[in-house]
């Protein structure tokens, strides 16, 4: 839930003062190369994957070329002393063994990395929190909204997906929802990620609109959601990441700042790694629109 | 007082009516709360008289009085002064005591005349009768020549001195606290030529001054009166024509009077005295005494009766002067002298008066507005010398009349926009709430509207301000050298007064503009005693959003609201010359709603009750009670998250301010204030049944901020003036409340939270206090220039927490507590002030350095809304700001305006325990509003009587922004990485505005004018910010410049007055 919607204000300003946006060319500073970690352990069966990349200079050309951090030693530990060294299955992509470590609710996990050039990183201990089940995952059709591009996006009414969950009352909870779909035509979408805290909804049944865009019925759509528990720190990380990639530059936006994850260099605090190593319990749901 | 009167006449004679040796019967004695009846008994015995009265009425009456050789009637007056009784003589022996229910007991001050009488050789003379005809009282001088007459009324009296064988001497005296005389009597010589004359005087046995005459006319020149008296009373006047204002026009009330009374009336308020001698009356100007008198009063607008604060009141004779305070009151205590009083005020015709100061006077002065600035007004300079003469520095007053002629954004005359054209004032960009003064934050400005704190000055997010120019009389911005009576904010004080309303007649004004319409009505409640003003304004921007075409084009939801309005009201009433009350208030609100998604509104409410009281001509006081409330709400009107949230701050302030004017060298201000703040950090509730939102109500915070101050402005001499003030401020967090304690030595976070303590009502949670010295100094280098210096220490206990680039109406106020230390600033400023071209051109250079401690910042990613543990998300750091401001200001003539250039820097440093909380690795970095170069040009040109043109230009270095220095791809999203803050800048900002005002021909009853205004004349797309984003559906990125004003903005408004 976003309280003050910048876009709304911008709307007012645009209409009143002919505000405008222009793409401009500017010279950017060149920064330090950092390690970026994308890793997760869940209570679903493994293998769990940790992806290591490097930052590049901010560039306006395509960012498809990603520099992977190859040949690093990557280890996941739990609080019982179990240790597993991950195997590099692809450049910069490290995975646990299928029969190896498995995430369990109530355990905490951390990640250790030593890069080829001997930089050593460790994540904070991440507690794998339980997650409540998805009460219902359903959709509603609205025939009154005309479909602007009927050829490519189905022919029927507008579809809105809803998810209901019951937030437990006696604790702070943080959620991540990953929505994705694939159509019969092979189109895929997502995952679109949203995070939420229960600060203003504690103990209530919460209804979420998972559409995040327009979907049109009259087509076969598989719509999926993963509901995951995250820690407060992970919530802060993700919400800041979304804030800084989605809402920037307006008068009422938060000025940009470094997004710290939970991975730090063991020897030099200034050489922090980016990204997050998370631990989640997962519940899945799926529906199919046939209408 | 010295007196040498040499009278060369011979003779001795007896006075009429009584003998010198046996003066009339008198009574001496002292009564302290003596029953009236006892006193009457004594009187009956002493004077051999009888009183009749109604016993039941006098029963409990007690009297007090000091009687010293008082004759009967005078003694009775004194005794009965504080009672409700009066007396009447039935015959010589019988007196009746009458209860007068209308008589108000009055505590008349009685004066004492003291002096020494000697002969020509300086030997003391005893047994000289000193006789006061007015009260028929007489005393005899002592062997050492001294005498004392007590219980005299204040004012002008004449006194006879007489002794056998000496020439009689009649003196005219203006009695005050300090009157002492020295009298010399001459012995009668046997060989005088004038013997015969004197003998004839004896024969007539009449005192010329007591002779009754009738004057045929009541007004004329002094000369006319003197001539008429000469012919009527067969006397002649003798005088030095240089000393007597013969051509002065005067008028008298009563044409049948004695010569003495007439002269008294003719020469009242002058130092001219008269002495009778040989059928002649000698008129003589007494030398001024070394005695001080106070001249005080108010300066007002002649047409409306409004006070003029800051008007110059100068006694040119001695180049002594002062300025009126914020209630138009002035007080000058100066030696007895003949003065030329000049009163001047910007935009008004100067008022000059000649006056001979011989007692304390109250003089209310009215100034007439200078309607046309067409002619170059020849200014004698006093108004404009203020620039170099006053000890104030770093102060700017913005004239509302000029402001109304400046180009206005969308036709809305805006005080804050005007302030932004002053040197040392910056903003992060268009549409930012508030303003930044000398590198300080928006919350470091104390904005006062009739002494009520205004917590948010913005309408429509800051595009307009809450101050309706039609309701405002005066505004003053202190950027430095802040006087000790202000406190609670680090960087500036913007003191705005609302108009009082015309107390002479009804009038109205208003306007119709592109954004809003205004209407103001004002008039007397009781003519010359009280008046009211009501001003209202409402915007109609919402019509934009009701336009279907536009809504569709902008892809807005269909059901929108966007408007603001405000209402100003004030009444004042003069209870007496010494007491005046003011009640004023402001109410304004902004309302925005976009379809079903977002709704928010905010607004200020203020109310001020003031009581001006004059304890004496020298002691002015003002007691103020203030209520101020700022709230905002926001919410989602519909849907599964439908909610409404509210936060706010309330302020109750009670204060008492005094100004004491002991003499022209000193001006002492002192006072106390105490204010209660009630901060509502957040409240949230669902607005429909299907909403997932729960009710959340964060505990309110209560704080009490108190202060006492004392200051003295001391004019050492005409060159050096020193202002020294000290403020002591004290702060308390009080219960009820919920306060958090964190582990000592650990960075504050939810991990180090140790305890949460609930306090009961009235419990003191935490206190803090500090001294705030304020010192300023002015030294005149020469007649046209001065050097000024000031030092300020300021403490701020209340902070605005904002995590956005520009402050928004939805930021929250947070009080200091155990975890958040008060902000402190030291500012040192030095300036050189110079006037050119006979004071019509004012120039100044000011340098300042400001050091700030405990500035409040937020941690990256901090959530400010509904955050109970906000303390853990706040950081405190240091700030420093310095700069040089150059200003040239032309205030008179066809062309007026100013040009200013400022070079300034403002930086921050935040060194947190946790590496991640540091900003820029704990190094100094530029603040959001650091704009080193700034140039402002404001020009107003009066082309003809009806047509004026004005233009302004502003240029400043682009504000700092943060560019990414790296990027990474995370879950298919390209994430820019910003490792530092504010190390790059947006392109420089510059803009030219122009406007034209055409005053309608109109008639006396309806005056109108049209204003055509162009904002951003050459349509520059000034950058508000530069930001980075991923191009949709690709992994490409782009940098985007956001311009909030993307083109020229013309506007037309129609203003009227009736």
Given as residue ranges, the uncertain stretches of chain B (5+ residues, pLDDT < 50) are: 1-23, 189-205, 374-380
Average pLDDT of chain A: 84
Approximately how much helix is present in the residues of chain B?
under 10%
Q: How can the largest sheet of chain B be summarized? A: 22 strands, antiparallel, barrel
Give an account of the 3D structure.
The complex is a heterodimer of chains A (291) and B (1058). Chain A is mainly β and 291 residues long. Chain A has 2 helices and 20 strands. The two termini of chain A are 30 Å apart. By secondary structure, chain B is mainly beta. Chain B is 8% helix and 52% strand. Chain B is built from 11 helices and 70 strands. Chain B has a 22-stranded antiparallel β-barrel. A 5-stranded mixed sheet of chain B has the order 28-35-36-31-32, with no helix packed on it. A 4-stranded antiparallel sheet of chain B has the order 8-7-10-11, with no helix packed on it. In chain B, a hairpin with a 2-residue loop joins strand 18 (272-277) and strand 19 (280-285). The longest helix of chain B has 12 residues, at 36-47. Chain B is elongated and about 125 Å long. Mean pLDDT of chain B is 84; it is low at 1-23, 189-205 and 374-380. At the A-B interface, helix 1, strand 1, strand 15 and helix 2 of A face strand 63, strand 64, strand 68 and strand 69 of B.
